[in-house]
Design brief:
361 residues; mainly alpha; 16 helices; elongated
Length: 361
């Protein structure tokens, strides 16, 4: 296979992996029977093309897609392009196990398509199916996997709730005052926080995968521009934090591979630049997440603290984000950081705001 053909296949594999990932999002609700058939055709094509690759080309593809995955692959298992020799199987399993299948407006049509694909799976295996691997047994096995995932998720959420209840509050000293705030453990165990963490890991994985395949300056700048637009356009409401801002910030705070630190710093630069342009964007993050960001980029505290003061008291109830007390914001900012504690104490003392903020808390 010529190099140009491998490059073309790389593009096709990227498209198919994007199809698989979209099946795990609300984009699945936009699919109909025709879209299912197109996706199935992609799966069949990719399986055959990958199977025809020689070992050197497979090694090259593994390098390009080392940060990619498929929906039903454990995060503990490294992605191997050989997995896509079973692309039709991965496709039907992704649909059956999608969290958006049961709420699909055309779920009867989608399920009918999936059931029709299972008998065809054996046609795309390069070895004879094992005994008991009939279409119905495969379907039932994938349904069992789906139910197991649901039960595991529900169990983890119950454990998280118990952990949150076990550590409801903590106290932080700032100046002469003791601030009682929700504990870090309680915040990390909240369902909304766990959801953002999962989204952040997926965002990071996609960023790493994109970087591995597209390294030209123009492509990198275009991607950074897209992230900046996404970050700035995602807004909080009076009842929920900004999902877009939260997942980008949380992704930058994750541990990144050594060869991707530059990407992490670029994303941190997007956040820093956007906040410098409009500091109130920090108030669209939960207090603990904003505090974590300032602990990584202490210079952002200079932008954050004036916002806390400006939106303390009555102004906090009319803001376009969930109302949070000034004590909670300050406590989550200075917790575990002596330098931020000293900075906040100095600023508040210099401005004579300690007593004023105490009355607003």
């Amino acid at each position: 296979m010529a190099a140009t053909e491998v490059d073309e296949l790389t593009t096709h594999v990227t498209t198919f992996l994007r199809i698989l990932q979209s099946s795990q999002t609300q984009e699945l609700h936009e699919w109909n029977a025709a879209a299912m058939h197109r996706a199935w055709d992609w799966a069949v094509f990719v399986a055959g093309a990958v199977r025809d690759l020689d070992q050197s080309h497979k090694a090259r593809m593994n390098t390009s897609f080392r940060y990619n995955t498929v929906p039903m692959l454990s995060r503990k298992i490294a992605f191997d392009i050989v997995i896509l020799e079973q692309a039709p199987n991965e496709f039907v399993r992704a649909i059956v196990c999608s969290p958006y299948l049961l709420t699909h407006p055309l779920r009867a049509d989608i399920v009918q398509c999936v059931v029709g694909y299972y008998p065809k799976l054996s046609d795309y295996e390069h070895k004879q199916p094992t005994k008991g691997s009939s279409a119905s047994s495969r379907l039932f096995a994938d349904i069992a996997t789906r139910l197991s995932l649901m039960q595991s998720a529900q169990g983890l959420m119950r454990i998280a709730t118990i952990l949150a209840q076990a550590h409801p509050t903590t106290s932080v000293v700032l100046g002469s005052r003791s601030l009682v705030i929700p504990s870090y453990e309680a915040w990390r165990s909240q369902p909304a926080t766990l959801q953002i963490m999962a989204l952040a890991h997926e965002f990071q994985r996609q960023a790493l995968a994109r970087e591995a395949r597209n390294s030209s300056d123009g492509q990198v700048e275009a991607y950074i521009g897209q992230v900046e637009e996404f970050f700035n356009s995602s807004c909080a409401t009076s009842s929920s934090w900004s999902v877009g801002k939260s997942l980008v910030v949380q992704a930058t705070l994750l541990r990144w591979p050594d060869d991707a630190i530059v990407t992490q710093q670029r994303l941190l630069g997007v956040v820093h630049g956007s906040v410098a342009q409009k500091p109130t964007r920090l108030l669209e993050l939960s207090p603990w997440l904003a505090g974590d960001l300032c602990r990584v980029r202490p210079s952002l505290a200079k932008e954050y603290l004036p916002c806390l003061v400006a939106y303390a008291g009555p102004a906090n109830t009319t803001a376009e984000w969930p109302p949070v007390s000034i004590d909670e914001r300050l406590g989550c900012l200075v917790a575990g950081s002596s330098s931020l504690t000293e900075f906040c104490e100095a600023c508040l003392a210099h401005s004579g705001l300690h007593d004023t903020l105490a009355s607003l808390a």
